[in-house]
Amino acid sequence: MAVDNCFDIAVIGAGPAGCAAAITARRLGKTVVIVDRATATHCSVVERVAPATRQYLADWGLIGRIGAPMALECSSVVSAWSPDAPPQVTHAIFDPFGGGWIIERDAFDRMLRHAALQRGATIIQGTVSAIHVHDSDCSFAFDCAGSKRTIQAKQLVLAVGRGTALIRALTVRSHSPEKWVAILGRSRHFDAQWEDDPYLFVEKTESGWMYGMPAPARGVFIGVCLPARLLTASPRRDPLEIWRQAVSCSMIREPRGSDADAQVWCRSMTGCAATEVIGQSWAVVGDTARTVDPLSGLGVAFALESGRRAVEEPGTYAQWIRSFSLQHDASKAALYDNGTR
Ligand SMILES: Cc1cc2nc3c(=O)[nH]c(=O)nc-3n(C[C@H](O)[C@H](O)[C@H](O)COP(=O)(O)OP(=O)(O)OC[C@H]3O[C@@H](n4cnc5c(N)ncnc54)[C@H](O)[C@@H]3O)c2cc1C
Prior knowledge:
This protein is α/β, with parallel strands linked by helices. 25% of the residues lie in helices and 31% in strands.
């Protein structure tokens, strides 16, 4: 196979996990290439990143760049799991790291890519279709502007998110038997309820749960999470109709006229975990290594931490993933079982 370029580390995927791996590798003085199929994400997703991410953003000199219209400080989390009890408010002031942020994921990912680029990583747009791993190095092929290219590297970091067939070249993933789907809705209209107090709400719905927050760039973002079978059951229900119905019954946020213009789309929430996360010349990180329960709000924090650890502490990476998984699964089971979430 003719090789176009050789690097110490090649990262496939420029989401938070891939960018964290690339930034860490540059800090260690390694040559790095990141290949991502998109120049930027275009997902319009709003997420709340956990307070623990502050430590990374500070280390990478990015704290000063976290602000509107990309991010809002999250003042509190308001949750309601029972129609008979008043919603509970957890103020950010009680968290040693603060409240974390509500972020526009597109803009957040662009900031991380820029940080990797500024530190000397090479970023190439291309869709990787095949990986070849050997004991001492690896190579992969991808399409770049209509032509095939190949890259060789001493280490490969696979950070392609949750839905990928590429991982099969490295390891296998087990999938959770529970299939869940999020119906995500975004309306363009400003919601005065959140003007001075940008909080995240989470609440129980008739068939699952719902979460919502103001979008830093503008508008409102609300996700309705439910077992996938409810979307495919007969007669088929329109996701927009399910989303509107859940929003109109919210215990926390009064429904607004602007919700009628919301655009909705679906995203799988089915969990998966890789059986092996690191080999001699490769590692899988972020959602590719294991997905994190969206209700925990730890997906981006886990992506950043796993990306860093796989590159900086490869010797203890597998053990760290194992302990993270045990802890995460236990706290998830406790939350879901006692219905407090
Ligand atoms: C409904 C829902 C709500 C969530 N809410 C939150 C939240 O509020 N807070 C939170 O912290 N987390 C949340 N998460 C989780 C969070 O979105 C993920 O954990 C996080 O995006 C994982 O980052 P990543 O870098 O591993 O993968 P991704 O962000 O998915 O990045 C993968 C990258 O790989 C690229 N790629 C994929 N395939 C290829 C290929 N073949 N070739 C080249 N490039 C490729 C993609 O273009 C993409 O840029 C939520 C998840 C869901 C499903």
